[in-house]
Task: structure prediction
Amino acid sequence: MARRGSAILLPAAAILAGFALGALVLVATGKGPLAMFQAMLQSVTGINSQAGTFNPRYIGEFIVQAMPIMLTGLSVGFAFRTGLFNIGAEGQLMAGSIAATAVALWVKAPPGAHVALALLAAMAAGGLWGAVPGWLKARFNVHEVVVTIMMNYIALFLNNWAVVALFQSADRIKTAPFPASAMLKSPALSALTHGSRLNWGFGPVLLSLVVYWFIIEKTAFGYSLRAVGFNKDGAEYAGMKVKRNIVLSMVIAGAFAGLAGAVITVGTFSFGRALPAAEGYGFDGIAVALVGANAAIGIFLSGLLFGMLKAAQTLMQTQGIPKEIASIIQASIVLFIAMKYGITHVIRKLGPSRPGEER
Amino acid sequence: MPFVIEMLDIVKLFPGIRAVDGVTLQVEQGSIHALLGENGAGKSTLMSLLFGLYQPDQGTIKVRGAEVRILDPNVANRLGIGMVHQHFKLVHNFTVTENIILGLEPRSGLVIDLKRAARRVRELSERYGLQVDPEARIEDISVGMQQRVEILKMLYRDAGILIFDEPTAVLTPQEIRELMGIMRRLVQEGKTVLLITHKLKEIKEAADTCTVLRRGRLIGTVPVAGTSEARMAEMMVGREVNFHVDKAPARPGEVVLRVERISVRNPKGLLGLRDLSLEVRAGEILGICGIDGNGQTELIRALAGLSPLESGRILFKGQDLAGRTVKQRSDAGVGHIPEDRHKHGLILDFRLDENFVVHSYGAPPFCRAGILDFRAIRANAERLIAEFDVRCGQGGATPARAMSGGNQQKAILAREIDLSPDLLIVAQPTRGLDVGAIETIHRRIIAERDKGRAILLVSLELDEVLDLSDRIAVLCGGELAGVVDARATDENELGLMMAGSGREA
Result:
């Protein structure tokens, strides 16, 4: 129980410290922190506490921000449970985005099936993009961090090439609009949230959270993945298929990220986009997984937190608060969490040699 | 005789434990003083306090009559205290001399005066009878010789007090005897030796005085000459100890494992095991002995299916194991207790109940349609914990990491025996365990033999191999040096075979 207690307590402390630091920076620049917290409250609840108004569009946009980073968080977390550091969620996401665009533009299918195909294709493409570093790791022991970082660039430029060359973008920035059958868009949800971009994407996201929890905690496969993550040698001695698990883990991690690409492309947007640079969903996912301790419920909660920070940025700007403050808060939360690992590590190293550890 | 070291009423607290609790240790100038105790008795902590790695919470330390505060190992060095660590700290591609002068290189101008240093090393080596070649590279010399380089390092720094931390763990019996001779020579030359060990025989052979610790407390300091081994063991453990392992004569049955001329590569890609043939029958224990790194690991890995064979074949119950995975072998009845229980035997971050099913998690009753049945996993843990007397604070939910070494080993034993294997590979089953746990595990291994299992025991502890085995195979340089009847051999013969001379196969 003590372990579970500290698993909640430490991230909570890091989050509080992050907000405190953000407020401090704000005060140092000569602004009161109250406006910042009001902006954050408004971005989550839609309630403007100064004007006393309520606009549900903010809630919708907040959820739209949280959805993809929960998925990339699941991607990073899943690989991490097998002892792999997946820096490539960004690239896997873009691979998924390309696949979703292709299905949306090129495949003709009835409304429900069309969008389902787009999502599945995105997961397959993301999985494939994850399989490459997984296979290289298992077969040749090439470090996955290096490969995934490189593959992020490949995916980015592949995407930009595809938008122009494959999808025949007229303005070289975005593709033709998708047919309605291929999209997660919902006029009803949009109307409910006063014209926000809220869409059915939260369905696959919630389902993914449950699937993640189920695989990791309940299945024999998840058990062997965790064994490999904790102790690769021990798992090998026990007769587990370590290499197969490494590849499969990266495939599943890639599928989660690929799905995020689809949720953005056929949910938030309605066309494929060429991008000047990576949008940072992959890196947000690292932060989400880290703060969420690689657990499904933790990733859900920290996804909401970081979604809120992203969503609050525009509001903060309208209040005259630099939106970078939100980035500072996000970064310092990650730093404090990382310090937590560092501190416990240092304590363990310098700490007493207990009886039994002697010799 | 004056005391050269006095540690008076020392207390060292670690969170939740009094690691050293009011211990007084007085060491006479020019003596060999042994420090005896089980794992966790506080020996290493006490020596770390003397060497400046920790500070005592209470008590005083006097060196040559003067009170000192040893804040770090540099202070210890200046006081003439040197430590020969259990794991040598040598640079492998440097020569002996280069290793010895590291940190205090004699210079002439800008260059290191290696000649002068080598001369001094040679003088010291001759004076103390160490027979070390100053020009030899560390990677080319034996482990025993490397240890002498460590001793020379201390002598080069004019250490008057030498602490040996479990120095015999890596040596052959002959090398151990030589080391004892070296220690006596050191003492004759006016040095003082502090010997940390849990091996009574060595104390009896070499030490003048023995201080016994148990659970951080001083049990007593006795003259070795007037104290029996049994008495010292009793002081160490707190009760009478039965050294002898009782076992009935073996009744060997069918050949369960037949190893035919196998060769196996080590991680460096060299043949670590060459042309080895062995057989183990049901109901017998075949002990494998040899100096560490002479092919034991390669043999175990080949049998378990972790390393491929370069040539030869392994027959288990008459069937060739070629191409069978680790899992298939364990399913077929090969149990394996790995030599490194933390790295290979357990998933330390898993709970105990999860560790019990590392082989069987994928099949009923623990798993149905890919989904784990935690109720069955917990029930399995309860059964094994009761049957094998595994002590753990929270039952099956205890993190494996939080358990004592002895109980971790009992858990692994329970898991592997529960597979009811026809062949049980047992590697280093009692390394680092205390006497009580060793007794339990030895009894269990013999009980398995008597149930008709074939047991292959690999151990670096010669006593263990001699006590448990029915037949003993000796490995040297990756080859079989011979197989002998355990009742008709002794340490001497085995030691000679381990060193590559002696009886032919």
Remarks:
- Chain B has three domains: 3-237, 245-333+420-505, 348-419.
- Residues 4 and 315 of chain B are 61 Å apart (CA to CA).
- Chain B has a mean pLDDT of 90.
- Chain B touches chain A through 48 residues (CB under 8 Å).
